[in-house]
Every structure is written in structure tokens, then in C-alpha cells.
Amino acid sequence: MLRVLCFAIDVISTDRWSYCAVQKLKKDYDGLVKSQASAKKQLEDETIMRVDLENRIQSLKEELAFLSEVHKQVSCAVWLC
Prior knowledge:
Blueprint: H1 2-80
């Protein structure tokens, strides 16, 4: 009888430990899910920023090419006059 009682106490202790461990793991998991969502949002924001900067670089390159061509044509026109 005493052996059965000791076993029952061990089972209850183990169940309590398991419950606490599961609760801690659930809390850790929830924290990781929140961290992942935050990292995903940051990645999306930075991707949008990168694309915007790449577009601005392309626009500036095109503007520089246009202004260089205008300068070249104006310089030729001035020297021919």
C-alpha cells in the first residue's frame, strides 16, 4: 500500500512538473512567434526601402545621362557659333 502511495505521489509530481514544463514551452513558443512576426515585418519594410532606393538610383542615372547629353549638345552648339 505504501508503495502504491509513493508511486501516486511520484506520478502527481511528474504530472505537475510536466504541466509546468509545457506552460514554459508554450510561453517560449509564443515569444518566438511574436519575434518572428516582428522580424518578418522589419524584412518587408527594409525590402520596400531597398526597392525604393534602387528606383531612385536608376532615376538619377537616367537624369545624369540626359543632362550629360544636353551639356554635350549645348557645348557643341556654343563652340560652333
